[in-house]
Design a protein that fits this description.
alpha+beta; Alpha-Beta Plaits; 28% helix; single chain; Aminopeptidase; 363 residues; 2 domains; four-stranded antiparallel beta sheet
Length: 363
């Protein structure tokens, strides 16, 4: 039986409960990975919204990076058991195994082992807020002037190259009604019924696909009303929606929040509040760097095929500024779920592909 090595540093990193509500553990995860990188590099530290991040490079002055590695060290909440990683053959289970502590650690190790010898500037960007939007990590650093020609984000991809991912809009539909005694409903207007009609209009326009499909999707996440009495007509109701949209959907892509709110209000007849908005991400799939990365994945024994991702990622902060960013990570499954796991058979090929890619860029 083949044994696949798991480093002590990875096991320690996976044990850190680096969720958004635990600032000490966010910093602890960051310090652990910076410790793996070791001395001899410049470490720029950033902090925004209580979320720490770092930028690491060789030399004293921050360059315009030819290639920038990006990894996030925060995770979504999980059970206590998920922070005690366990192995089952070639699979390593635990929170953050697949999304994306293992990949971040490999990016840090490859940076450590190559950055000083490359004929171009390589950077390592470590952030701790990707799971809650990325605005205080990657976006904050970009606003502080971090620039690159090409960004490799270590999110999970099975050594395929993600050149396109969806944008995200999180919105509220707000319905007003008139309270009345439940025995006399004609004297009132039921806000929940009004809201239901509006939600139905949205889901009718964007029905849930029965299988994977590259189009806009809407998830009805929550409905609330201030009414707590069964014998009363509700006077207010709110629905929370999570909208994921590709760059081709011009009702969302490229639109500011007020235009999206107006569009959904016209569709539903309700007041609409856009709580957060993230643009889709796209990189030129025919660029030389994408081709190099695909070739490096193939040299490591994987297809390197292009892949689209339905989830939003930090690459959108770069593509918004005309910088190509791709997702390229190891294999596994179950991110954000109870059975999240990393396929250990992909770790060393992932490392080899990254090193080969840097060599191809250098030549």
């Amino acid at each position: 039986m083949v044994e696949y090595a798991v480093s002590e540093a990875l096991l320690r990193l996976l044990a850190v409960r680096s969720t958004a509500d635990r600032p000490g553990d966010l910093l602890g995860a960051l310090e652990l990975v910076l410790g793996v990188v070791g001395p001899g590099f410049t470490v720029e530290r950033f902090e925004s919204g209580g979320k720490p991040s770092a930028l690491v490079y060789a030399g004293r002055q921050r360059p315009h990076f030819r290639v920038l590695f990006n990894g996030h060290l925060d995770v979504v909440p999980g059970s206590g058991e998920q922070f005690r990683p366990r192995r089952a053959g070639p699979l390593l289970y635990g929170r953050g195994t697949h999304d994306m502590k293992a990949a971040a650690l490999i990016l840090a190790e490859v940076f450590r082992d190559t950055a000083r010898d490359l004929p171009f500037p390589l950077g390592l960007q470590l952030v701790t807020d990707e799971e809650v939007g990325g605005y205080d990590g990657t976006a904050h650093q970009v606003e502080q002037g971090v620039k690159a020609d090409f960004v490799v984000i270590g999110e999970q991809s099975g050594l395929r190259v993600v050149a396109e991912s969806k944008g995200i809009a999180q919105v509220r539909l707000v319905a007003d009604g008139v309270a009345a005694h439940a025995a006399y409903p004609w004297l009132g207007r039921n806000a929940l019924v009004v809201l239901h009609a509006g939600v139905a209009a949205v889901l009718g326009r964007y029905p849930a696909p029965e299988a994977e499909e590259w189009r806009t999707t809407v998830n009805l996440a929550r409905i609330e009303t201030g009414n707590r009495a069964v014998n009363q007509v509700p006077a207010d109701a709110t629905a929370w929606l999570d909208v994921r949209f590709p760059p081709s959907d011009r009702s969302f892509a490229g639109r500011p929040a007020d235009e999206i709110a107006a569009y959904l209000s016209g569709l539903t007849g309700l007041e609409v509040v856009v709580d957060s908005l993230g643009a889709p991400h796209s990189a030129d799939p025919s660029s030389a760097d994408v081709a190099r990365l695909q070739a490096s994945a193939a040299a490591a024994g994987f297809s390197g095929a292009l892949l689209r991702k339905h989830g939003a990622a930090d690459g959108r902060f770069y593509s918004a500024r005309g910088i190509d960013a791709v997702i390229f990570g190891p294999g596994g499954a179950g991110q954000h779920g109870p059975d999240e796991h990393l396929d250990l058979r992909t770790l060393e090929p992932y490392r080899a592909a990254l090193i080969d890619f840097l060599r191809r860029v250098a030549s």
